[in-house]
């Protein structure tokens, strides 16, 4: 893993003007983005989100998942607070890529759940890696984080990368009739802490 900082610009959004920082993984060619809002000091615990790419939810308004809703709510929360960050990681489909995610959706349309669909295609349920986050956070001056997530494995992965996760901030938004089964599987099989299902305790 070799992460190279490329450039910073403004990103005006409906919630406020973020700064957008571009990064390149020079080994894989993947292009990642960090958004920041306000002044970030290394001593502060900064509200933030590590968000994996979901073209369908983030850009195409899909109701099959909660991704787009989580991204928008996280950006809104950060802008309202006046300080925070988003790392937007190009790990589409929990790391299997867009076309394989569409293959997985095809299997889900035929009755498989999100984990079974990945496994039938020969993938693990979650193929993501998080070794890009440390150099990205270093570049934007973040060492301590209040992380908006329901995913305890994300919290652990960050801690393993040497990031201090001071707090986990739940981010339960966007539940609808098309993603109810998806959210339930996240809770029962992927370990997400989703209060409405009561299948997980709060230990991470
Ligand atoms: N393989 C697969 N990936 C999916 C499916 N639905 C959504 N995704 C991907 O799941 C990932 C969700 O990542 P995040 O938004 O970081 O969320 P998370 O790890 O589930 O945990 P939270 O932080 O609680 O949201 C994105 O890469 C989506 O593209 C699906 O049915 N199958």
UniProtKB/TrEMBL annotation:
Name this polypeptide is given: GTP cyclohydrolase-2
Chain ranges of the GTP cyclohydrolase II domain: 7-170
Species of provenance: Shewanella holmiensis
Protein family: Belongs to the GTP cyclohydrolase II family.
Catalytic residues in the record: 126, 128
CDD domains: GTP_cyclohydro2
Gene Ontology biological process terms from the UniProt entry: riboflavin biosynthetic process
Domain of life according to the entry: Bacteria
Listed SUPFAM superfamilies: RibA-like
Cofactor binding note: Binds 1 zinc ion per subunit.
Protein residues bound to Zn(2+): 54, 65, 67
Binding site for GTP: 49-53, 70, 92-94, 114, 149, 154
Pfam families, per the entry: GTP_cyclohydro2
GO molecular function: GTP binding; GTP cyclohydrolase II activity; zinc ion binding
Swiss-Prot/TrEMBL keywords: GTP-binding, Hydrolase, Metal-binding, Nucleotide-binding, Riboflavin biosynthesis, Zinc
